[in-house]
Amino acid sequence: MTKPLVQLLEQQTFTDEEAARLLSLTAPDECRQLQERAYALTTELLGENVYLRGLIEISNICTANCRYCGIRKNNHAVERYTLSEETILACAELAARSGYGSIAIQAGERRDPKWIEWIADLLKKIHARTVNDALPSGLGITLSLGEQTYDVYRYWAEASGNPNGLRYLLRIESSNPTLFRSLHCTPGKNEKVLEHRYRALEDLRRAGYQVGTGVMIGLPGQTIEDLVADIRTFERIDADMIGMGPYITSNGADMVSEGMLPKAQLMQLSLNMIAVTRLMMRNVNIAAATALETLEPNGRIKGILHGCNVIMPNITPQQTRSSYQLYDNKAGCEVGAESNVLVENNIVEIAHRRLGLNQLGSSLRWHTRTGT
User: Which coenzyme or cofactor does it need (predicted)?
Assistant: First the structure.
């Protein structure tokens, strides 16, 4: 006999079949029940705060050739850039003055010694310039700079100056080995291996980071069972934070011909994935992806209503944002950094939340594990 949905939603653990059932919901009333339970659980465990991560896209130069990505190495149509150190520091100082509490530094993947040293020096300067009365340890920092060695992760961690606000986002994109291979099957030195991604995530934990990962939702060939396996992988990794969003095609990538799900279907599946991840992972941080806003103008509000507690407003200078298009029609390219706190505050108020200003917003799961 099928368990009533209201009873299923109150569980703390779920079988794969139960998780698949929740991910597959499409009836409006059932989707509403899932949303309300995820929102209530987020409030119960994590409170009403939504935390800011000011996103700085410091460079779109990349040595990798991931087939889904608009800044892949073989996309020769994109204008490449690297922000100057002073521009990045100005963005960080703006975030510190504006109450962000944390920033996220994102770039294409590079491993050359010059880049590694430049990032380390940049982290030291960001820390030195963002210590103030409201942020006595400086800004929290999330790095999203791809696969590196343990020694590099440790080197950057030591340079950050704020071990309790140190995070790294390294998405797996899919835990299905066949799907993963199809996303990264360009032959040669840029080819990705799923086992290497898992090893890198282990290295990040050893190096002292709060570990973030995530997947794309609605990939060509992806099944509901794949998404269940993705959440089980989050559990196995014991991830502290999850960054995931809908798969949206990019004309600069190599997968346009494979298409994407219809927007309404993709949006509902993405919201279900957020909500079910909240029910199963419970005390992790979950970010409301900008890609949700690309599907719908109020997409991030819906993300918060389904269990997200982190948002990542883009504070990169506007003149380079159009060159960091991981997918087409990326939202947020037109909003100036100076107005983002007002914009984000409106978003969280509509979702009946409040901004956690001048707070690191570290993961409760990380706090519980480490006792900090």
Answer: [4Fe-4S] cluster
